[in-house]
User: Which sequence fits this backbone?
């Protein structure tokens, strides 16, 4: 026989805070070296000239200038080309 009564398990106790992802600087805004432009999971936006991609796919500015967003076609692993947004600093 059991010594304690059956205790239920709660299903809503794993709540984590938001990751604060998204675009931090929009097109036309000025940026300084090292500033975060986009925080993202995966490469939804691509890093172009004047930017670099960190290990967690965050796009940073590698020089001072203005942020520019352009639509470009990139080749996928399967060989297809798909439109993606490219982030550059000019």
Assistant:
């Amino acid at each position: 026989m059991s010594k304690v009564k059956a205790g239920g398990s709660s299903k809503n106790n794993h709540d984590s805070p938001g990751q604060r992802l998204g675009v931090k600087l929009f097109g036309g805004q000025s940026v300084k070296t090292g500033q975060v432009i986009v925080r993202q999971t995966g490469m939804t936006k691509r890093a172009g000239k004047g930017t670099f991609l960190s290990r967690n796919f965050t796009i940073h500015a590698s020089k001072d200038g203005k942020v520019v967003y352009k639509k470009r076609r990139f080749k996928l692993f399967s060989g297809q080309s798909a439109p993606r947004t490219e982030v550059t600093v000019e």
In short: The chain has one domain: 22-89. The chain has a mean pLDDT of 91.
